[in-house]
Amino acid sequence: MVTLQRDGSDGYGDCGNCNDGPKCECLKGFRPMSPENWARVDWSSECVRKWELDCGNGDGFVKYGGMKLPDYSHLAASRNLSIWECEAVCLRNCSRMAFSKIDIHGNGGDCLLWFGDLLDMRDFEGGGDDLYIRMAKAELEAIADAKRNR
Q: Are 137 and 59 in contact (CB under 8 A)?
């Protein structure tokens, strides 16, 4: 008999962002859709944005390092783009929610673009990839203000 260890974020889509322990958290710029459920350790409701996106009006990206990248079911890839070109391609389409640049084919890196909800992510201590998530201008300004006030 084999016993597998599970934590609160092992179920697909059960958590906004999983840490190495049995706890889910929303990424910076997001909040639980149902704080009441999360207070009861029921992480089945997703995370939602604190600020709604306003495409073409100052949206930008926040880098999250050391991530297990989201589910690949809503993904497009472009080869041989720089990180800046990848960001520009992602910004041109309002349904693109995130991008990453990873070396899939050994050619220096491919640009991956995610559409729709970002599901099944996890923080990896000492590993993982960089994920750039689209944020509203108001959230970007709040992050910049917090950095200035440190």
A: yes
d(CA 135, CA 137): 7
Q: What is the pLDDT of residues 26-83, one digit of tens each?
A: 888 888 888 888 788 777 777 888 999 988 889 999 999 988 888 877 778 777 788 8
CA dist., res. 26 & res. 31, Å (int): 6
Whether the Cβ atoms of residue 134 and residue 61 lie closer than 8 Å to each other: yes
- pTM as predicted: 0.81
| HEC-encoded secondary structure of the chain | CCCCCCCCCCCCCCCCEECCCCCEECCCCEEECCHHHHHCCCCCCCEEECCCCCCCCCCEEEEEEEEECCCHHHEEEEECCCHHHHHHHHHCCCCEEEEEEECCCCCCCEEEEEECCCCCCEECCCCCEEEEEEECHHHHHHHHHHHHCC
Answer yes or no: are the C-beta atoms of 114 and 74 closer than 8 Å. Answer: yes
CA angle 117, 119, 121 (to 5 degrees): 135
